[in-house]
Design brief:
Blueprint: H1 2-27, H2 34-63
Helix pairs in contact: 1-2
Amino acid sequence: MEFLSLYAELCLAWVAFTAIVATLRQALGGHFTPLQYVMFRYFVESSLLFFMMTLASIALLESM
């Protein structure tokens, strides 16, 4: 149970970090290349998916 909560925190922290870095980069005048944009979307979406799966696992374990 503790592992799942730590994993959920890590996934959410990674999403926040990548979103902050992307926002800062675009605010400072840089733009993503198409490959960088695809990689950014992949990292954010896969991390959010892992976070949701972890929350579902925690909810299932708590309901038992």
